[in-house]
């Protein structure tokens, strides 16, 4: 009765193919004025030349640090909110999700106000006499990690929250009743059972951090080049299509790699426990 | 103050949670305080109080024309993504389609590839190779990244709707079209509304696509603001940001009152 005709899919499929899939493949195989295969030659060069390797390393490193930070801060928020009986818990959850609706540019600009040479944190340090001059905070790794943590923490909270909410609180009580400490209950019961949520959080946060442009551009400056800022420079500034496409390939593979590894890791873990 | 009780009970978790909220919220508060500062540069503590920067932001032609462009783009891309995505979702959930999981995967594929990469592909292939304008490329790109949201969020509400209701309408003599418009569509309304809201906000705030597909004639607000921050150090940008924050709060309240926050964002990571 309710057999819907497949032609309803047609506009969508045509759109995805013409507007996304074909241009993406063409970007790798045939950038303008670049002969086929050159993108892969450039890809190979980038994986061996120290300049590009440093940028790949920084993207991977800062991306992983951000991911771990978001998990360490996001899981406790998700856990406390999921287990809270307070009538304000919903409000706190909304406050954690709200930043996702707000422009990344606006959120990142806040760190310039805080970390800039005349910013609040520098003024606080000199005001308290901790240092004669405000330390350089902006355009450092720290600034980039803080900025990316702010942007992607809500994603970690949502993913962990839906996972923790599915863990029956009765299991916590059972473990506690059998004599486990609260810390042990958290590590041996709640955390392993929320592993799927942690994997989703890792994938989303790392994918965001490894491809973020706004943060390294505004908070990292020229000293903290990452793959995203390089891709933009190759594409829109120096117009080096082979390098731009190769950078895009590296960036995509990096995201796939970390997402694949994190789900493998969690599968190994859940077998153990 | 729900966190006070668990904080007392669980010092480590509570401290980490408070730190998390500080990192998410405090920078936004500093943006707001800067917007009202009478100082000429972005500095702390704020010097005096003024509303002048709001005047400067609203009187800034490049901000205002970019705001118009961003609204237009977000509205059209959202409408297009829904017009393409909703029928496809219905076909995927209710129809018998060969290779259903492949089709579903294709519709979600723009979510897997970094947006910056999608932007590069469209810039190269649509603007440079085909020579089309950046507004066309932007519309294609934004619609492509919104499609997964449209398919997922409406799909989630379609999965909850019982197909038997629609069959009952048909059994009672309604034509397929009438059954769709009087039964299925109303059931889908919350899903479509959530998808529209999420799509609009996603498109409006998008940086990566708009960055790579920029052109002097059609510029979006986030890219204009990025450029402004790089070239100026006055609180105009803080005032513009505060206005966006106020608008976002309004959107959030509408979302919470109509379908609920958690439901809208539940669709993101399933």
UniProtKB/TrEMBL annotation, chain A:
Membrane-traversing stretches: 60-81, 93-114, 142-164, 185-213, 241-265
Key word Disulfide bond present: no
Pfam families cross-referenced by the UniProt entry: BPD_transp_1
Signal peptide: none
One GO CC term on file: plasma membrane
Localisation: Cell membrane
GO biological process: transmembrane transport
Ranges of residues in domain ABC transmembrane type-1: 56-262
Membrane topology annotation: Multi-pass membrane protein
Keyword Magnesium: no
Alphabetic keyword roster: Cell membrane, Membrane, Transmembrane, Transmembrane helix, Transport
Stated family: Belongs to the binding-protein-dependent transport system permease family. CysTW subfamily.
Protein's recorded name: ABC transporter permease
Organism: Mycetocola tolaasinivorans
TrEMBL record, chain B:
Residues forming coiled coils: none
Keyword NADP tagged: no
Matches recorded under InterPro entries: MetI-like (IPR000515), MetI-like_sf (IPR035906)
Recorded superkingdom: Bacteria
Gene3D superfamilies in alphabetical order: MetI-like
Membrane topology category: Multi-pass membrane protein
All copies of domain ABC transmembrane type-1, residue ranges: 67-255
Family annotation (PROSITE patterns): ABC_TM1
Chain segments annotated as transmembrane: 12-36, 71-90, 102-123, 129-151, 236-255
Subcellular location: Cell inner membrane; Cell membrane
Protein family per UniProt: Belongs to the binding-protein-dependent transport system permease family.
Protein name: ABC transporter permease
Species whose genome carries this gene: Mycetocola tolaasinivorans
């Amino acid at each position: 009765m309710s057999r819907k005709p497949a032609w309803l899919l047609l506009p969508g499929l045509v759109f995805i193919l013409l507007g996304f899939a074909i241009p993406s493949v063409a970007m790798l195989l045939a950038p303008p004025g670049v002969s086929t295969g050159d993108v892969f030659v450039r890809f190979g060069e980038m994986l061996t030349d120290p300049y590009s390797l440093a940028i790949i390393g920084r993207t991977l490193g800062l991306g992983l640090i951000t991911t771990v930070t978001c998990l360490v801060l996001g899981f406790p928020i998700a856990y406390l909110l999921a287990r809270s009986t307070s009538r304000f818990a919903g409000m706190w959850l909304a406050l954690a999700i709200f930043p996702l609706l707000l422009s990344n540019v606006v959120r990142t600009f806040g760190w310039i106000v805080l970390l800039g040479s005349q910013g609040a944190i520098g003024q606080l340090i000199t005001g308290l006499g901790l240092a004669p001059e405000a330390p350089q905070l902006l355009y450092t790794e720290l600034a980039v990690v803080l900025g990316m943590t702010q942007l992607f923490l809500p994603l970690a909270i949502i993913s962990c929250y839906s996972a923790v909410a599915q863990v029956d609180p009765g299991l916590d009580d059972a473990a506690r009743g059998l004599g486990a400490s609260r810390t042990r209950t958290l590590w041996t019961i709640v955390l392993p059972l929320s592993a799927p949520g942690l994997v989703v959080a890792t994938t989303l946060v790392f994918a965001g951090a490894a491809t973020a442009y706004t943060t390294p551009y505004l908070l990292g400056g020229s000293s903290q080049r990452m793959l995203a800022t390089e891709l933009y420079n190759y594409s829109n500034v120096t117009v080096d299509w082979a390098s731009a496409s190769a950078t895009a390939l590296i960036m995509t593979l990096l995201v796939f790699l970390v997402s694949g590894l994190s789900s493998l890791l969690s599968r190994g873990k859940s077998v153990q426990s | 103050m729900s966190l006070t009780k668990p904080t007392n009970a669980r010092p480590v978790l509570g401290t980490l949670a408070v730190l998390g909220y500080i990192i998410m919220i405090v920078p936004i508060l500093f943006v707001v305080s800067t917007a009202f500062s009478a100082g000429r540069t972005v500095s702390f503590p704020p010097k005096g109080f003024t509303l002048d920067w709001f005047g400067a932001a609203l009187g800034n032609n490049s901000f205002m024309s970019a705001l118009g462009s961003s609204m237009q783009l977000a509205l059209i891309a959202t409408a297009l993504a829904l017009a393409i995505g909703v029928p496809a979702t219905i076909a995927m959930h209710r129809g018998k389609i060969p290779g259903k999981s492949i089709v579903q995967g294709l519709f979600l594929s723009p979510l897997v590839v970094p947006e910056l990469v999608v932007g590069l592909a469209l810039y190269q292939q649509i603007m440079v190779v085909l020579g089309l304008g950046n507004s066309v490329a932007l519309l294609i790109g934004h619609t492509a990244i919104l499609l997964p949201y449209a398919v997922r969020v409406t799909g989630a509400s379609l999965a909850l709707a019982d197909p038997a209701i629609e069959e009952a309408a048909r059994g009672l003599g309604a034509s397929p079209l009438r059954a769709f418009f009087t039964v299925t569509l109303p059931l889908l309304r919350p899903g479509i509304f959530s998808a529209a809201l999420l799509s609009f906000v996603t498109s409006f705030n998008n940086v990566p696509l708009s960055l790579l597909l920029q052109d002097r004639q059609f510029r979006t607000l986030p890219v204009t603001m990025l450029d402004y921050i790089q070239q100026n150090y006055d609180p105009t940008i803080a005032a513009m940001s505060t206005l966006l924050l106020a608008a976002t709060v309004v959107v959030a309240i509408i979302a919470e009152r109509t379908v609920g926050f958690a439901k809208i964002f539940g669709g993101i990571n399933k």
